[in-house]
Amino acid sequence: MKRELIFITVIGKDQKGIIARISNAVFAHNINIEDLNQKIMGGYFVMTMLADITDSPITISQLKKELSTIEDEMHLKIQVQNENIFRTMHRV
Known about the structure:
The chain has 3 helices and 4 strands. The protein is α+β, with helices and mostly antiparallel strands. The relative contact order is 0.28.
């Protein structure tokens, strides 16, 4: 079975709980975090997450909607992209 991978990117003012909120949201839907990279740059939190949604009962659109709540509450910018779309857009 082919895996379905997504990239979740998060940018916003650094604050406590960002990783916890995002990781709890994906965990709640049986989404496995494959890789995570985060850093603080000039007071801003920047994170990229690669996640496997193969076994998840929700769609990417449903996940985007749920993460938009976190986005609004924490004043972040959160994007969710299918791995194939991400790779196509960033091909050189």
